[in-house]
Design goal:
The complex is a heterodimer. Chain A is of the alpha/beta class. Chain A contains ten helices and twelve strands. In chain A, strands 6-7-8-3-9-10-12-11 form an eight-stranded mixed beta sheet, with helices on both faces. A four-stranded antiparallel beta sheet of chain A has the order 2-1-4-5, with helices on one face. Chain A is globular. Chain A starts with 5 loop residues before the first strand and ends with a strand. The mean pLDDT of chain A is about 90. In chain B, the strands form two sheets. Chain B has a six-stranded mixed beta sheet with strand order 5-6-7-3-8-9, sandwiched between helices. In chain B, a hairpin with a 6-residue loop joins strand 1 and strand 2. The model of chain B has no long low-confidence stretch (mean pLDDT about 90). Classes of the chains: A alpha/beta, B alpha/beta. The interface between A and B is large, with 44 and 43 residues.
């Protein structure tokens, strides 16, 4: 088997708080093969965005940092790179799309100029930048006139498509999308998801798609990781996660999904809420919310193989 | 078959005019172009549509937060302020400087509940939302999103409304806790018979709670009918488009 494009092992990340550092990631293992689309699902506060920040080393130094583990990209240890080398990776070989597109662009510079800058800083020839930007705008179905516009002149959906175009300018190998559709209307969400599916195939792009809505991953992800309280509780091929979930948390997430085919049906939410990262109670992190807990849940649980490529910390 | 109506609105129109940068340009947005609907006692009416369809403007007009340019609003209620509103993000709608206790007491005070009776009434409300165990001396940011939204709903209920208007009450929440709020709204509706206007942009949430659905587009209602009918056999092309946008999960088929 060839080495994966992205391999994260035993990753830990902390945020500094007035009462000391708290662990937002507690030993995450994750890999993305070349050309693969990986979904990362979990509730707010599970560490999904921290994972994205860790890969690209985008922490505000005063707020948090990667505190352990290893991130290897295309055979290269990212933690060994200095800031200058890391800048050569961001937006060139690994790109990020964030939830709020208005935060991704500078509000006072025209979209086209911002896109051309992304090309230029990564060494694209000046006579190619303009054409590259136009081609990418076309691929996300935006009019070329968007180049002359300021971010506030575009709707959220259009601007999010512009940010996808900007992310793909330098033909990255890996695209990380962190809740890219959560702020958008459902019709726009569908367009973006479809668009990402097409672009992924066309550019043989590897994708990490982060979301709280497992339903979105059904059409997009080859494999899915379920993240909770900074740990991977279960991972496996999308079909296994949806059809044969092993972990009670995964089952809870699936059970909480609304089903439009049975209007009026009552959905079971997962009771309670995600524990604070400052909570360091030993044992299974999901135990306080779990309906099947027993005394063995007081012990730390390892990821156990369920079937080929499907692993879970619990078998229910 | 329409139950005895609580509220009937007819031909609501509202145009917002905006001034451009430094007053250079003037634009007009017709938010409502003649909207009418009726909501019966004990009914949950969903207003569905995308951003800019006029859903929130309609809600604000019903709650008296905005005046229509023209149109009729007919209430069949016993009190002067019959509607209470629940907003999208409880993080912003709850006062961050008020503990949950003070927040509820303040609302109860507005409803004319005497000081001595407020603690008992507040506990009663919290019990109804399954929140009897929370520490009410805590502040909004110390609660999870689902809890905060239920608290915001309780604050609205403290004023004993005759109609609850919920504007995108679950869109800021994780999908795993949306049902906490939707189930709670369903309980209020079925136990107290409180009519609810439920505004949302996605039909998935709507399908869980609505008795009737009105689909809005560009300031007009394009389709209206019983929820099951609109969702299973939509007649309008725009309703079909909304339905087609719901992510279909081929692996999940709940019975």
């Amino acid at each position: 088997m060839t080495a994966p494009l992205l391999e994260i092992s035993n990753l830990e990340a902390v945020y500094y708080t007035p009462s000391g550092p708290v662990k937002a990631l507690r030993g995450v293992d994750l890999y993305v093969k070349r050309g693969e689309s990986v979904g990362v699902a979990g509730e707010s506060g599970c560490g999904k965005s921290t994972l994205a920040l860790s890969v690209l080393d985008l922490f505000d130094r005063a707020e948090g940092a990667v505190s352990g583990g290893r991130i290897s990209f295309s055979g290269m240890d990212l933690s060994g790179l200095d800031e200058k080398q890391m800048q050569g990776i961001r937006g060139k070989r690994i790109s990020l799309i964030m939830q709020d597109p208005y935060g991704s662009f500078n509000p006072v510079i025209r979209i086209g100029r911002q896109m051309e800058e992304i090309c230029r800083v990564h060494g694209m020839r000046a006579d190619e930048t303009s054409e590259t930007c136009l081609r990418m705008l076309e691929e996300v179905n935006l009019d070329r006139g968007v180049r002359e516009m300021f971010p506030h002149q575009l709707s959220g959906g259009m601007l999010q498509r512009a940010s996808i175009a900007a992310a793909l300018l330098n033909s990255p190998e890996l695209l990380i999308a962190d809740e890219p559709t959560s702020n958008l209307d459902v019709t726009i969400q569908k367009k973006i998801i479809d668009n990402l599916g097409v672009l992924r195939k066309k550019h043989s792009l590897s994708l990490v798609f982060i979301t709280h809505n497992l339903n979105l991953l059904s059409s997009l992800a080859d494999r899915i990781y379920i993240l909770y309280a900074g740990q991977v509780l279960e991972y496996g091929p999308a079909e296994d996660i949806f059809s044969r979930p092993a972990h009670p948390y995964t089952k809870g997430l699936l059970g909480a999904l609304p089903d439009i085919k049975t209007p009026g049906s009552r959905i079971r939410p997962i009771p309670g809420s995600v524990p604070s990262p400052a909570d360091t109670t030993p044992g299974c992190v999901f135990f306080p919310r779990c309906s099947r807990g027993s005394e063995r849940c007081g012990r730390e649980k390892e990821l156990i193989r369920v079937s080929e490529e499907h692993y879970s910390r619990c078998s229910g | 078959m329409l139950r005895l109506s609580v509220l009937k609105v007819e031909n609501l129109r509202k145009t917002y005019s905006s001034e451009g940068f430094l007053g250079t340009r003037k634009g007009k947005v017709e938010a409502l172009k003649g909207v009418g609907f009726e909501i019966g006692r004990g009914e949950v009416l969903a207003l569905v549509g995308e951003s800019g369809s006029g859903k929130t403007t309609a809600a604000k007009i019903i709650c008296g937060l905005e005046n229509p340019d023209s149109g009729l609003i007919k209430w069949r209620v016993s009190r002067p302020h019959p509607a209470q509103m629940v907003f999208q993000n409880p993080l912003y709608s709850l006062n961050p400087k008020l503990s949950i206790k003070s927040c509820l007491y303040e609302a109860l005070g507005c409803a004319g509940v005497p000081r001595g009776k407020r603690p008992a009434r507040a506990s009663e409300l919290l019990r109804g939302a399954g929140l009897e165990k929370i520490n009410t001396s805590k502040y909004p940011h110390q609660f999870s999103g689902g809890q905060k939204q239920r608290i915001a709903i309780l604050r609205a209920l403290a004023l004993e409304p005759e109609l609850l208007v919920c504007d995108e009450p679950v869109s800021a929440l994780d999908i795993s806790v949306q049902a906490q709020v939707i189930n709670f709204l369903k309980d209020i509706n079925s136990s107290a018979g409180l009519p609810i206007i439920f505004i949302a942009h996605d039909l998935e949430a709507v399908s869980m709670i609505a008795d009737r659905v009105a689909v809005m587009k560009e300031g007009l209602i394009v389709e209206e009918g019983p929820a099951a009918e609109v969702i299973t056999s939509p007649r309008n092309s725009y309703t079909r488009k909304l339905l087609d946008s719901v992510p279909v999960n081929p692996w999940l088929s709940k019975s």
